[in-house]
Write a structure and sequence with these properties.
The chain is mainly alpha-helical and 366 residues long. The protein contains 16 helices and no strands. The chain is globular.
Length: 366
């Protein structure tokens, strides 16, 4: 099942993360109220998780017995996909900051083993976007168990698990966010925003949506109103992003979308886009848009080291405004991300996969 038109959405989501980190004061990214959409980077991470669950279902779910699923093959495929560029970005950041770090060993070890999101005070150490890969790694470890649950108990059991996790996560997050013990950037903050336990609900409901789409929806004829429903869903998501800062004023308490609160809407948009066969699908399958989508992981994980390189070696030699510095940096980041995807990420992934095939009797699925 080819869903190439979903690929470009990863690039759009990754851009919002870059805008959030480095473009918050730059036009037109800073123009209200649309700045709340352009800079929805932390919320876009939930989109990544929902899409990840959906794509894992499309790629790996089979209706036959679960013992046909080779978990070691799957884990190595995921390692080959994410770790080479992750480690490159980590190495660049570590080398650049080694002399100024009081405690280099602990954060380095946690980041190398992708455990930083589990430990308060450490999720954003070294290459800060890497915390989300620490979370994603937990999803990958759980994936075989989730498949086993489906094959033993059925898809309804996964749906029940996803709904329960989603509801408990939202209640717990909102309660702790509004509790007197909550301090921004404190240990409680790190738990509710970065701990993998607080995000797995998004992956699980994404997995359910992917399996249901594969078994049921993909076999149905596309609705002539599919594009209209997609536009309505995206409009609702944008409106929710715009009104989010007003929740405390209206209801007396804070809410946040970072733990999957609006992930069900993300999944509706993903399913509608996956079903789309019209102009939108054709547009999103243009080769250069697909390439940007494929390079989005490098763009996401390399954003901080590339920004450091730009500031250290380029910005000081160019006398332009902050506006132009940001867009020069963004152009450099996109270019290097494409090069990383083509010359580093893809060759290393193929090498790891080839090595595995040559040393086992199994064919490694990428």
């Amino acid at each position: 099942m080819r869903l190439e038109h979903l690929t470009f959405t990863r690039f759009i989501a990754a851009l919002t993360v870059v805008f959030f980190h480095y473009g918050s004061n730059i036009e037109p990214i800073n123009i209200p109220p649309f700045n709340l959409i352009f800079q929805a980077g932390p919320i876009a991470v939930s989109y990544f998780y929902a899409l990840s669950g959906f794509i894992m279902a499309i790629a790996y779910y089979r209706s036959e017995a679960s013992n046909n699923f080779n978990k070691w093959k799957y884990w190595l495929a995921r390692f080959a996909r994410i770790y080479p560029v992750y480690f490159l970005a980590l190495l660049l950041i570590f080398v650049a900051n080694f002399k100024t770090m009081d405690d280099a060993t602990t954060p380095l070890l946690l980041n190398i083993f992708m455990l930083q999101a589990w430990i308060p005070n450490y999720p954003l150490t070294l290459n800060s976007p890497g915390w989300s890969l620490s979370v994603e790694t937990f999803f990958y470890l759980c994936f075989p168990l989730l498949l086993l649950l489906i094959h033993n108990k059925g898809l309804k059991a996964l749906a029940l698990l996803g709904i329960t996790l989603w509801a408990v996560t939202q209640i717990l997050h909102t309660y702790l966010l509004n509790s007197p013990a909550y301090i921004p950037q404190g240990k409680l903050h790190d738990f509710i925003y970065y701990n993998p336990i607080m995000h797995i609900n998004t992956f699980v409901i994404g997995l359910f949506a992917g399996i249901y789409f594969k078994k049921k929806i993909s076999r149905q004829r596309e609705s002539p109103y599919n594009a209209v429903f997609l536009a309505i869903t995206l409009t609702i998501i944008c409106l929710l992003l715009i009104i989010r800062p007003n929740f405390k004023l209206w209801f007396g308490f804070d809410v946040d979308y970072t733990n999957g609160l609006i992930a069900p809407l993300f999944l509706v948009s993903i399913v509608l886009l996956a079903r789309e066969q019209g102009v939108i699908a054709k547009l999103f399958t243009f080769s250069w848009l697909v390439l940007l989508g494929e390079a989005s992981y490098s763009l996401y994980i390399l954003q901080r080291p590339v920004h450091g390189i730009y500031q250290a070696f380029i910005a000081k030699h160019i006398n332009v405004s902050e506006f132009w510095h940001f867009y020069f940096y963004l152009f450099l980041l996109i270019g290097l991300s494409i090069l990383s995807y083509k010359l580093f990420e893809t060759p290393l992934r193929h090498w790891i996969n080839t090595w595995y095939r040559s040393n086992t009797k199994y064919n490694l699925k990428t």
